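**Protein fold record**
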Amino acid sequence: MKQFDFTGRRVLITGGTNGMGNAMARAFRELGAAVTVTGTKPREAYDTDLHGLDVRQFDAGDPDQVDRLIGSIDALDVLINNGAMVLYRGQEFEMEGFRRVMEVNINAVMQLCTGFRPKLAKRRGAIVNVASLAAFGAVRGNPAYGASKAAVVNLTKTLAVAFAKDQIRVNGLAPGYVKTNITEVSHTNEQISDAIVQKTPMRRWGEPEDMVGPVLFLASNDIAGFVTGQTLAADGGYSLQI
């Protein structure tokens, strides 16, 4: 039985300084990978486990910074597009807010995937684009977040077909309600949190560590070498309901 082994692999995880991204980064690190993570703040601003990780301060909403990040990494085996943002209090209904979210959540994903394509092709690499449960239905108050995550799902399919000739696998991961900074306004509100738990068949919130197994599977050429273009829902069964 094959096991996960990323010894000697180069992994980049956007948004890897906290939450799901940090859980993923720590797992790849423990499995032998050299891991680079990005965050919007300097390394010293985080209280998460960044030991042994190459930390880059990075704004995915700035195309020039995206280009510089691509140029600064000379080889790559696995690209995890995990970084994302959401705006509240109706800001996504304003065009300035809508454009900002789309720039970070989908435009940067496209730029990173295409920019790293030559380097990934040299190493038969893999891409995992982190979408969301929000890709599959309406998200009250967050038109940009929902639209951007739906776009991630479709982009994943398109790039999987386009990149297959380079032996690059492109898959997606769609987390459900997971306790992260983005969902803090919900999981810290007892009424909202309880409603989410009651609607989730597994009757709990997801933890960042729940996303580790799925992302390792999708990133592993040894175990998922014939899997591409798929978006794996990891949501406790939430999206199965109508």
In short: The longest strand covers residues 169-175.
